[in-house]
């Protein structure tokens, strides 16, 4: 058995979930600028996610789900996951984004499970608070080590695919590290770089065949 962990936003999905949500409130540029700082590693992820989610306070949860269920998936995402599973990989999604998007996408794209964050809502609207499993810069690194231990999979049989600074912690625990249309800070940690917005390109990596 082998393990492949994908990031969600700007990896399995073409864009940032929180930016789509912010657009509904007319604050996309404000939120996107914070997202950019976090993904480039210039702002602590925990601080950034709390600042951004606070700006979403009052957004109707039904609208949140509607947006999250209509996100544009990355070209080749479904086919790539299907092919990896046929090669014996367990495929998992780690996201600093939200379960409204990742849990819905799981059945569409075909990955085995997802770990992400939860938007708190009260009386049908977002409260501006967030909790969950992927709140810190180190969260993905801790979770991938737990999965490896539970599944009995070594770092030699682990592949990770991501684009931003908060993916660095999981890159530290995999021998195949793919920076997909990534920020420079993550490319420095990768041993494979894909610049084409087509996930099937990672299937050409000789080490995963």
Question: What can be said about this structure in brief?
Answer:
By secondary structure, this protein is α/β, with parallel strands linked by helices. Helices cover 38% and strands 22% of the residues.
Oligomer: single chain
Cα end-to-end separation? 13 Å
Number of domains: 1
Q: Ranges with pLDDT <50 over ≥5 residues? A: none
Largest sheet: 7 strands, mixed
| CATH topology group | Rossmann fold
Number of helices: 9
Helix content: 25-40%
SSE class: alpha/beta
Count of β-strands: 7
Q: Quick check: average pLDDT?
A: 96
Instruction: Supply the CATH superfamily name.
Output: HAD superfamily/HAD-like
Specify the CATH class. Alpha Beta
Tell me the CATH architecture. 3-Layer(aba) Sandwich
What would you say this structure looks like, in words?
The mean pLDDT is 96. By secondary structure, the chain is α/β, with parallel strands linked by helices. Helix 1 (17-24) runs antiparallel to helix 2. The chain has helices spanning 17-24, 28-39, 45-54, 61-68, 77-86, 99-109, 139-151, 168-171, 184-187, and strands spanning 2-7, 89-98, 113-122, 125-132, 158-162, 176-180, 192-194. The longest helix has 13 residues, at 139-151. 38% of the residues lie in helices and 22% in strands. It has one domain: Rossmann fold (3-Layer(aba) Sandwich), CATH 3.40.50. 43% of the residues are buried. A 7-stranded mixed sheet has the order 4-3-2-1-5-6-7, sandwiched between helices. A hairpin with a 2-residue loop joins strand 3 and strand 4 (125-132).
